[in-house]
């Protein structure tokens, strides 16, 4: 009798269905209903038909009899063939009154489900076994498949690529028991089971907070609980802000989410000159009150630390909020946005070129004022509203007025733009609030991985000395991170083109005059205060950037100083920037989920080896199968759960009979696009799907451009911006006659110029 008893899914796997007779089937008895269905479904797959659940007999609230039938049993209700509001072509009719079935009942004596009736006669053609996997009851995704799909989807892999990967693991596409559409349906089902988006996002943040006790998030709701904005930052963000939060950059131009809401990302630069994120927010508008709320939440999360300097794209609401919350911070406007606005407001390319030179040129204040008057007078724009407004804000954009204020090399918000370029590889426009937060955290994880790589490169090996100041160079190589050292070394190269032409000692300091070879009119003054062991230069680059300028380095070489003085070393640029900060070392500890993922990968590796080699011969297959079944039985016995798979089959197919015949009239739900979940169209015409398909998949090489700020701030020789194609460093004054000649003797340029478009509505015109 025991040879006909099926106690587990593994017993079904051992059955040779090709040699199974009707008499054998009628003698079977099952431990539960799920196994009865699983057996009949497996049998149907070998024959080439699909099955579904049918009627049940219930006694005292318990199922005592159950019928499983061929999916072609019965007939389609006529109402489905005469729908007046039908839009799509009706599905082919498959039900033809087939009588094939398996009928089981519960035998209380042996406490098993016994076969009462079995019919294997069909009145329709059967599908060849090769195509049986496409029938409805055979193409359901299993829990391992769903789990693997979810893990791959979490790292940004698209559904078609996941399907290809799973098919590759199975050997061929014909060995996979579901389709891409089934995967999309499973994803949609999971989304429908989630609570509302905001509640789900908060639940996800609560889950992160359980792992990271320092995680901070805050949600503001309006009347009737309507979402306004959400701000969050994890513990690592707070540690980074504590070290590198002296300079803060943010904008709200990124809107890649399902709701098209602005995303505000607070960022800065770390000791490797890499972009580092301090926090993020999703807001419903860009009003002043919104930015005030965000900056206050940032202060709360960062224990009240106020940044020294802030750089933005110039949005008026941002500027007002910064003055209110960070009254003592230096606010700088993005140079790139100013250049764009100069083009769109004045419409003269030569003016934009000269305005750029004035903005980025390292002039004395008096020289700047003179050049400004000459420029606006030459172009006749002194009365333009934008010109008047810009002149009133000159202490927020002109290098002449900003010199000496620390901005860590920031001139533009290009780091924010580059961060957006990386973020869009993780976040798609179809993602809701919860998915955005999840994928944003994944983007942070990748950026921190890159920081770990930079830490490793800085801590291993020593760069080869290449300058004439090798002792100074070697000293800096042991202090700075590798990337900052490369910037420092470029300063040393510049220092070799300088000479000290005069020195003078006063009661408080020594003053050195530094000049460039063959350019005696270019002079800088370096002072040395012996008591404080402090060097200062008239170019103020040390104060603005935190790296010694070439003029100071020339003086160090002149007085034979072999080691970089401590007063010239800013800790935020050094290898030891994070040393002694509690929290960094344990932030990388493995969480429970991380261990589970690692273990899953390890077991998957060995299981794949067994799968590839164990299927080559029949005896190897049987031996491998039996060994795996025994291992699984031991695992379940150890965990105390002997019914994991028994209940699984019932769960997996519990809704197969939902489309069976019923006389109850139901109202069909309005159809929605399965991609974006919106009405009025389907996935074939979905514009959001087409937009995402045009977006390239994640590419590590492309993501390397996250640090978009150029290194032009280290250039010391022109005392102006490094892009020398815009101007010549030896120019003492702006040569207006040169621009006049280039324009053909006209002050108005006749050249066509693409201004890049007018300012967006979201961005206040400067």
TrEMBL record:
<dbReference type="InterPro" id="IPR007527">
    <property type="entry name" value="Znf_SWIM"/>
</dbReference>
<keyword id="KW-0862">Zinc</keyword>
<dbReference type="InterPro" id="IPR004330">
    <property type="entry name" value="FAR1_DNA_bnd_dom"/>
</dbReference>
<dbReference type="InterPro" id="IPR018289">
    <property type="entry name" value="MULE_transposase_dom"/>
</dbReference>
<keyword id="KW-0479">Metal-binding</keyword>
<dbReference type="InterPro" id="IPR006564">
    <property type="entry name" value="Znf_PMZ"/>
</dbReference>
<dbReference type="Pfam" id="PF04434">
    <property type="entry name" value="SWIM"/>
</dbReference>
<dbReference type="GO" id="GO:0008270">
    <property type="term" value="F:zinc ion binding"/>
</dbReference>
<feature type="region of interest" description="Disordered">
    <location>
        <begin position="737"/>
        <end position="766"/>
    </location>
</feature>
<protein>
    <recommendedName>
        <fullName>SWIM-type domain-containing protein</fullName>
    </recommendedName>
</protein>
<feature type="domain" description="SWIM-type">
    <location>
        <begin position="524"/>
        <end position="560"/>
    </location>
</feature>
<keyword id="KW-0863">Zinc-finger</keyword>
<dbReference type="Pfam" id="PF03101">
    <property type="entry name" value="FAR1"/>
</dbReference>
<dbReference type="Pfam" id="PF10551">
    <property type="entry name" value="MULE"/>
</dbReference>
């Amino acid at each position: 009798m025991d040879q006909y008893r099926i106690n587990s899914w593994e017993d079904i796997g051992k059955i040779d269905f090709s040699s199974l007779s009707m008499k054998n089937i009628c003698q079977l008895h099952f431990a539960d209903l799920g196994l009865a269905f699983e057996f009949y479904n497996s049998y149907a797959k070998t024959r080439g038909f699909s099955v579904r659940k049918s009627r049940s007999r219930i006694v005292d609230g318990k199922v005592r009899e159950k019928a499983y039938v061929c999916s072609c049993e019965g007939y389609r209700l006529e109402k489905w063939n005469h729908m007046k509001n039908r839009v799509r072509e009706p599905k082919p009719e498959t039900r033809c009154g087939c009588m094939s079935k398996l009928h089981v009942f519960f035998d209380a004596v042996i406490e098993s489900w016994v076969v009462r009736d079995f019919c294997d006669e069909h009145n329709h053609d059967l599908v060849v076994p090769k195509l049986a996997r496409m029938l409805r009851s055979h193409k359901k995704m299993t829990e391992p498949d769903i789990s693997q799909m979810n893990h791959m989807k979490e790292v940004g892999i698209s559904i078609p690529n996941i399907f290809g990967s799973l098919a590759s693991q199975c050997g061929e596409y014909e060995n996979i028991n579901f389709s891409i559409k089934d995967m999309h349906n499973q994803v949609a089902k999971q989304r429908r089971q989630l609570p509302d988006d905001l509640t789900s996002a908060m639940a996800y943040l609560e889950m992160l907070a359980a792992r990271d006790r320092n995680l901070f998030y805050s949600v503001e709701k309006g009347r009737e609980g309507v979402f306004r904005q959400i701000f969050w930052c994890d513990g690592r963000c707070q540690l980074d802000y504590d070290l590198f939060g002296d300079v803060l950059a943010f904008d709200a131009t990124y809107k890649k989410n399902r709701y098209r809401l602005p995303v505000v990302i607070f960022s800065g630069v770390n000791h490797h000159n890499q972009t580092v994120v301090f926090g993020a927010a999703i807001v419903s508008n860009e009003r002043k009150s919104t930015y005030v709320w965000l900056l206050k939440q940032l202060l709360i999360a960062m224990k009240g630390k106020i940044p020294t300097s802030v750089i933005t794209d110039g949005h008026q609401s941002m500027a007002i909020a910064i003055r209110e919350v960070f009254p003592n911070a230096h606010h700088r406007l993005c140079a790139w946005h100013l250049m764009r606005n100069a083009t769109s407001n004045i419409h003269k390319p030569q003016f934009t070129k000269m305005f750029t030179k004035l903005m980025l040129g390292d002039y004395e204040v008096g020289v700047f004022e003179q050049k400004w008057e000459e420029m606006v007078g030459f172009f006749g724009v002194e009365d333009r509203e934008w010109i008047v407004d810009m002149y009133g804000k000159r202490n927020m954009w002109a290098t002449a007025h900003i010199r000496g204020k620390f901005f860590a090399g920031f001139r533009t918000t290009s780091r924010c733009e580059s961060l957006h370029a990386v973020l869009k590889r993780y976040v798609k426009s179809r993602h809701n609030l919860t998915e955005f937060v999840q994928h944003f955290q994944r983007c942070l994880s990748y950026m921190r991985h890159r920081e770990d790589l930079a830490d490793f490169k800085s801590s291993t090996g020593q760069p080869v000395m290449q300058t004439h100041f090798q002792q100074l160079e070697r000293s800096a190589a042991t202090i700075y991170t590798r990337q900052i050292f490369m910037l420092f070394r470029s300063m040393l190269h510049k220092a070799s083109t300088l000479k000290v032409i005069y020195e003078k000692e006063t009661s408080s300091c020594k003053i050195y005059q530094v000049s460039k070879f063959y350019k005696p009119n270019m002079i800088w003054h370096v002072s040395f205060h012996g008591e404080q062991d402090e060097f200062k230069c008239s170019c103020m680059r040390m104060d603005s950037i935190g790296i010694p300028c070439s003029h100071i380095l020339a003086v160090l070489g002149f007085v034979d100083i072999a080691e970089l003085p401590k007063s010239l070393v800013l800790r935020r640029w050094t290898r030891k920037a994070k040393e002694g900060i509690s929290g960094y070392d344990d932030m990388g500890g493995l969480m429970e989920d991380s261990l589970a993922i690692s273990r899953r990968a390890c077991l998957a590796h060995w299981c794949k080896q067994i799968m590839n080699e164990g299927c080559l011969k029949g005896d190897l297959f049987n031996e491998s199968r039996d060994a795996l079944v025994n291992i699984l039985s031991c695992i379940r016995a150890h965990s105390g759960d002997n019914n994991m798979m028994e209940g699984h089959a019932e769960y997996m197919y519990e809704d197969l009979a939902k489309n069976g015949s019923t006389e109850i009239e139901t109202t069909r739900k309005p159809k929605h696009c399965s991609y974006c979940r919106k009405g009025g169209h389907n996935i074939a015409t979905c514009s959001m799907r087409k937009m995402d398909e045009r977006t390239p998949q994640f590419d590590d090489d492309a993501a390397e451009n996250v640090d978009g700020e150029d290194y032009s701030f280290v250039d010391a020789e022109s005392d102006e911006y490094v892009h020398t194609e815009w101007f010549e460093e030896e120019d003492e004054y702006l040569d207006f006659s040169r621009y006049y000649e280039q324009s053909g003797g006209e002050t108005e340029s006749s050249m066509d110029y693409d201004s890049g478009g007018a300012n967006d509505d979201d961005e206040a015109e400067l």
